[in-house]
Amino acid sequence: MTVRQKVQHILNSITPIQVLALGFATVILIGTFILMLPISSSTNTETDFTTALFTATSATCVTGLVVVDTGTYWSRFGQTVIMILIQIGGLGFMSFATLLFMVMGKKITFKERLVMQEAMNALTLQGIVRLIRYALISTFVIEGIGAALLSFKFIPKFGFWEGLFRGIFHAVSAYNNAGFDVFGNFKSLVQYTESFSVNFVIMTLIVFGGLGFTVQYDIINKRHFKKFSLHSKVVIITTSILIVVGALIFYLLEHDNPETMKYLSFKGKVLSSLFAAITPRTAGFSTLDTANMTNASKFFTIILMFIGASPGSTGGGIKTSTFAVIVMTLFSVVKGREDTEVLSKRIPKDEVYRAFSVICIGIFIVIFDVLLLSVFEKADFLSIFYEVVSAFSTVGLTMGLTPHLDIVGRIVIILTMYAGRVGPLTVIYALMRRHANSNAAIKYPEDNVLIG
């Protein structure tokens, strides 16, 4: 076998899941080397590898955690590179590959469609190219509208070009649930706490980006809730409950906190409560000082971050539909029913097993990383727990620990962000070859163990 044949054999043996995992890693490395260039920093000096790698990983994994301030450390070129990485990471590199294929008139192969299916979390291959085409068009349209609305607010304050850039940057960052901002000094959107227009646009972009492209497609094309797929109904209902209940809880916990909401107007308190409920859905922006929230609010934020956005979206976490399936399974067990039932439909057992696998692997990753950081970092437990969940769920909210991480802490958070964006199951499947149905014919004897 020639070298060329060996290379071709290796390429052919790579599974779609491995292509997805390697693709994200490749984008991160390219972004790292570009950010290391002197032109990328505001001081025109070379950036060290770990800082560039951390930033590129955070941007590509649409997280928002940073070790240097995005608004002051990076030059306009560097900020543009970060914005492009956010866009690629949010949509997925296969979406851009599809765009390139369509522009070049190249036929999309079956294997490439399998990778697209994996990237979009689609149930079937049918209509996958159409879905990605829709995702590309809708993304640029929604981001364009968001950028225009934000620019109207920013241009009078920062000037035309600066205001326009800030409008585009924050629209891309919000829709892709990234949480990067260029206002400087790690302040995020605190200066716009009582601005209805900025809050409304950013929250709308976050929610749309976090719903997932299949849900967006249902909303735009089917329009009537009864016609939506079960997945879309579950995502919309779960998202709505988390936002409404979350906002109410944050209002009750923070409205009298002098460090956050106490001195805000009623409008400001309502906006802040809504924003605090929406941004943990993996967005990472903040209009309140998260470090000064009550411990109850911080812990509740951790719960929302862990749940995250929805499948096939720009966000992370275990996903809303996974959370919903777990909750409905618990209800079914309590009611003594054999099957998991959601909206008068029965969920297949393999999907229930997958949901439990996702949440268990997520918990394991979080526990392991919290243990590691507790050993190597001098910080209180809640700050470490908060940071790890924020990284795993690609949120970007922080209590201020990230800029002070040492080399070990940075590596742990980098790997956590990568695992969170690609997906816990995807990482495991990429590292291990699955032999599907290899033991399908084997049925072992049934026996019991004590539970509970």
Automatic annotation (TrEMBL):
<keyword id="KW-0812">Transmembrane</keyword>
<keyword id="KW-0813">Transport</keyword>
<keyword id="KW-0633">Potassium transport</keyword>
<dbReference type="InterPro" id="IPR004772">
    <property type="entry name" value="TrkH"/>
</dbReference>
<feature type="transmembrane region" description="Helical">
    <location>
        <begin position="80"/>
        <end position="103"/>
    </location>
</feature>
<feature type="transmembrane region" description="Helical">
    <location>
        <begin position="17"/>
        <end position="37"/>
    </location>
</feature>
<feature type="transmembrane region" description="Helical">
    <location>
        <begin position="49"/>
        <end position="68"/>
    </location>
</feature>
<keyword id="KW-0406">Ion transport</keyword>
<feature type="transmembrane region" description="Helical">
    <location>
        <begin position="234"/>
        <end position="253"/>
    </location>
</feature>
<keyword id="KW-1003">Cell membrane</keyword>
<protein>
    <submittedName>
        <fullName>Trk system potassium uptake protein TrkH</fullName>
    </submittedName>
</protein>
<feature type="transmembrane region" description="Helical">
    <location>
        <begin position="196"/>
        <end position="213"/>
    </location>
</feature>
<dbReference type="InterPro" id="IPR003445">
    <property type="entry name" value="Cat_transpt"/>
</dbReference>
<feature type="transmembrane region" description="Helical">
    <location>
        <begin position="134"/>
        <end position="155"/>
    </location>
</feature>
<dbReference type="Pfam" id="PF02386">
    <property type="entry name" value="TrkH"/>
</dbReference>
<keyword id="KW-0472">Membrane</keyword>
<feature type="transmembrane region" description="Helical">
    <location>
        <begin position="355"/>
        <end position="376"/>
    </location>
</feature>
<keyword id="KW-1133">Transmembrane helix</keyword>
<feature type="transmembrane region" description="Helical">
    <location>
        <begin position="407"/>
        <end position="431"/>
    </location>
</feature>
<keyword id="KW-0630">Potassium</keyword>
